[in-house]
Amino acid sequence: MNKKSSHILNASSNLLGFSLVIITSLKISKISQSTHLDEFAGIACLFFTFSCFFSFLAIRSKNEKQGNKFENIADYLFLIALFCIVLAVIIVTVKII
Predict the structure, then answer these.
(1) What keywords were assigned to this record (predicted)?
(2) Structural contact between residues 32 and 38, judged by C-beta atoms closer than 8 angstroms
(3) Contacts for 68 with CB less than 8 Å, ≥ 6 apart
(4) Are 6 and 56 in contact (CB under 8 A)?
(5) What is the DSSP letter of 93?
(6) Which of 31, 43, 64, 66 is 20 to 30 A off residue 96, Cα-Cα?
């Protein structure tokens, strides 16, 4: 199996920062009360954080079977968080149009 934990860790940490920027900008502009955008971004932050955590555990794991398990968990959490970000982008797009 090709190791992808380092790629998941890199992408998750970058998108975690992006999600935090979304939440911060919503709080500053006081738009968060009128949309569910901050909820989706907050959920994405949690999933990206856990994805980072499990991908780090997969990298540091000495046991290959356990490392693969952590990598799969990180992969699925990353996918769920990515879906939340896509929903947030759709909400922004609909709100602008």
Answers:
(1) Membrane, Transmembrane, Transmembrane helix
(2) yes
(3) 1, 58
(4) no
(5) H
(6) 43
How far from the centroid of its chain's Cα atoms is residue 80's Cα?
A: 7
**Consecutive H or E run containing 69:** helix 64-96
Helix%, strand%, coil% for the chain, nearest 5: 85, 0, 15
How many other C-beta atoms lie within 10 A of the C-beta of residue 65?
Answer: 8
Residue 93 structure tokens? 């797009």
State whether the Cα torsion 38-43-46-49 is positive or negative.
negative
Query: Over its length of 97 residues, how does the chain's per-residue pLDDT go in tens digits?
Result: 458 888 989 999 999 998 888 888 877 877 766 677 888 888 999 999 999 999 999 999 999 999 999 999 999 999 999 998 888 888 778 877 6
d(CA 32, CA 37): 7
Distance CA 94, CA 16 (A): 23
Q: How far is Cα 50 from Cα 12, in angstroms, rounded to an integer?
A: 9
